[in-house]
Design brief:
It comes from Leisingera daeponensis. This protein is 37% helix and 17% strand. By secondary structure, the protein is an alpha/beta fold. The strands form four sheets. A five-stranded mixed sheet has the order 4-3-5-12-6.
Length: 308
């Protein structure tokens, strides 16, 4: 029987955070385990409480205790992760096949890889490509994978890498939004706070709205306590519907821009040269499936012609 996961769409990252917070009964210890800030953990919990329309922790001064429903959800997440760990071990123990495994984030898979996937498969012939998608790249043992599209290659300095996408950040909106708020073309800072859509950039180092205004040399607007999207495809869909303006990145917003679904509202700024790198294990031979995968990535952008 086919099952739908729509009720939890957009909440998967927050559920993982909830499991750790319930296990520790502490937001600060959860933040330490996840490598996140405590405010980021709190935002994930608040997101879940808003979607479930109920509190998940009882707060008493500086101490918290999970509610019965929070414990129930956390137990379900832990059980699911246990099944995933078991399946992962079984896959690793399976005999080698003519395939390569690639890890990347949801947003990268949805906006960059999927439009090119047919071309990738054709270039690899009969080689199968397994794509592991997660916005928690820090939770994956990348040493077990053939290649990964990462933000920071310094995490595994022993593995070679090359740049894939330049780091360029710019505001985007739908054509309908610009018709309704023509002043946005001249002065983004004057827009109401609730029209700025925020994305939880986690540990990626990607610019937030505050970072973009700072890099662009523009006055900071009042953002208030705006909720954050924990998966970029959901934010992009909200922008398409004209619900507000979001930040776009070169390589991630390219297709939506080319189709006219969204428009650029301001200048592109950069705080570093590149936003994505392809990091990989050393191929066994020049004719290997992994080398074919890497050659395909190198052909996708002029950046790949200047491999360090």
């Amino acid at each position: 029987m086919q099952r739908s996961i729509r009720p939890t769409s957009g909440s998967l990252n927050s559920l993982l955070v909830l499991e750790v917070a319930v296990r520790h009964a502490s937001l600060s210890r959860a933040a330490a385990e996840l490598g996140m800030s405590q405010p980021a953990v709190s935002r994930h919990i608040s997101t879940l409480e808003g979607r479930l329309r109920q509190p998940l922790f009882e707060r008493n001064n500086n101490r918290i205790a999970p509610t019965a429903n929070a414990t129930r959800l956390a137990d379900a997440v832990a059980l699911g992760l246990g099944h995933v760990d078991q399946a992962w071990s079984e896959v690793l123990a399976a005999p080698e096949t003519d395939e390569v495994t690639l890890a990347c984030t949801f947003g990268f898979a949805d906006q960059w890889l999927m439009p090119r996937y047919s071309d990738l498969r054709a270039s690899l012939g009969g080689t199968r490509v397994r794509v592991v998608t997660t916005d928690q790249l820090g939770d994956i043992d990348l040493s077990r994978l053939d290649a990964a599209v990462v933000w920071d290659p310094a995490r595994m300095p022993e593995r070679p890498y090359f740049p894939l996408v330049p780091a360029e950040t710019f505001p985007i909106c739908s054509p309908g939004f610009l018709e309704a708020y023509p002043e946005a073309a001249e002065n983004l800072s004057a827009l109401p706070p609730n029209l700025f859509l925020h994305f939880d950039t986690g540990t990626s180092g990607f610019l937030t709205w505050r970072g973009w205004f700072e890099q662009a040399g523009l006055p900071q607007p009042r953002f208030g306590k705006a909720p954050e999207f924990d998966a970029y495809p959901f934010l992009l869909q909200s922008v398409r519907r004209g619900e507000g303006i979001g930040l776009g990145w070169t390589g991630i917003a390219d297709n939506a821009l080319a189709c006219g679904e969204v428009l650029r509202l301001g200048p592109a700024v950069s705080d570093r040269p590149y936003s994505y790198f392809v990091q990989h294990r050393a191929p066994a031979a020049s004719s290997s499936a992994l080398e074919q995968l890497l050659d395909w990535f190198r052909c996708q952008s002029p950046l790949l012609q200047s491999q360090p």
